[in-house]
Write the structure tokens for this entry.
Amino acid sequence: MEGTAFSKMAEEAYQYLTDSAVWMAFAGTGLKIIGIIIGAVIIKHLLSVAVVNAFKLRDKSPLKLLSERREATLVKLLGNVISYVVYFMAFLTILSEFVDIKALLAGAGVVGLAIGFGAQSLVKDIITGFFIIFENQFSVGDYVRVASFEGHVEEIGLRTTKIKSWTGELHILPNSSILEVTNFSVHNSIAVVDVSIAYEEDIEKAQKIIQEVVHAKEPDFPEMVKPPEVLGVQMLGASEVVIRVTAEVLPMTHFKISRELRKAIKAEFDKQGIEIPYPKMVTYHKEQAPAAAAKKS
């Protein structure tokens, strides 16, 4: 009996696998799925290009309501939304080839409630991402610090935010984990340059040289918002006198300005003979007393 049942099953399976109608149906379904995927990719690309072109047209209009940072953020976000929507619709279309999608959607209420309890973090990510954009906390291209991560914002999505550090690492953070943000790109920065001179040097002369150098370099840096200011003696160190110079500059240009000012001041100090302190060691040799020397001999 068992051998007969097995033989019958094997015969039915063979007939099914060798039925040309079955393979035609498989081929038709496969072609439909491939067509749906290709169509989804093309539609996503066309919609993304349309969004980019729409913002380019806004740039040419005389009335510009959004800043470049804001526009870049919205372009990235809309591209993210388009990807989610198009690929989700493609998934449902492919699924309809195998199951009754209407019956599935009819029961989605109960299933959605069950999924909702398990996807609270996802909902929280989306809501937090919405408020980040709505409140303009930061935008694409801004230099920010979030917890221990610091770098330029590459993308703000519905669920995650991508931050690229200056060393090249890409940090992907769930939006709900962003509790505190330091944005360095909103307001002007302050370039701070501390210049050390030896105690033996003339402080007034050094300050005068620094003043002449920074004002001579000002036309070379359009990033400077205000003229550099020599504040004076900042600190008296163990072997140095520190003179501080500050300059208000455009956001995130203070590193560049500080480096250039240090270079120019050092070059002028070398010309004027102003010594920059370096570690020194003085050795004292204690001479022996005459009586002790006579006793030894």
Remarks:
- The chain has nine helices and eight strands.
- The chain has three domains: 8-99, 126-183, 189-272.
